[in-house]
Amino acid sequence: MGGRGRGRGAKRTAAELDQLADGFVEFVKANPGLRIEQINKQLGTSTKDLALPIRKLLADGVIKAKGKKRSTAYFAGEGSRKRKAKG
After folding, report:
1. CA 65 to chain centre
2. End-to-end alpha carbon distance in the chain
3. What are phi and psi of 35, to 5 degrees?
4. Fewer Cβ neighbours under 10 Å: the N or C end of the chain?
């Protein structure tokens, strides 16, 4: 997962961001209350990979965060993922 095969500074596609976000949401639903370090270990991602998808998911209410900085734990929220129409 993430942008490991891309050159430094290259943008990720919307599809890549959606894939990361979907994986994160499903994992958090199945494993509520974990911190980002624990989630990264299980998903094989980095905090940097997930920063943007997490910000969007929090803004949409899809996930909730409790705590601050490294002690932040993530939980499923009440919101739903907004999908962009294709075509």
Report:
1. 12
2. 25
3. -90, 165
4. C
Domains in the chain, number: 1
Partnered with residue 64 across adjacent β-strands are: 75
> By percentage, how much of the chain surpasses pLDDT 70?
82
CA distances, 26 to each of 51, 63, 79 (Å): 16, 10, 14
* Residue ranges making up the domain that contains 63: 14-76
pLDDT in tens, 11-47: 889 999 999 999 999 999 999 999 999 999 999 999 9
Estimate the share of the chain in helix, then strand, then coil, as percent rounded to the nearest 5.
Answer: 50, 10, 40
Kindly list the distances between the CA atom of residue 28 and the CA atoms of 7, 15, 24, 31, 57, in Å, as whole numbers in the listed order. Answer: 29, 20, 6, 5, 11
Spatial separation of the C-alpha atoms in residues 55 and 25, rounded to whole Å? 12
In a domain, 9, yes or no: no
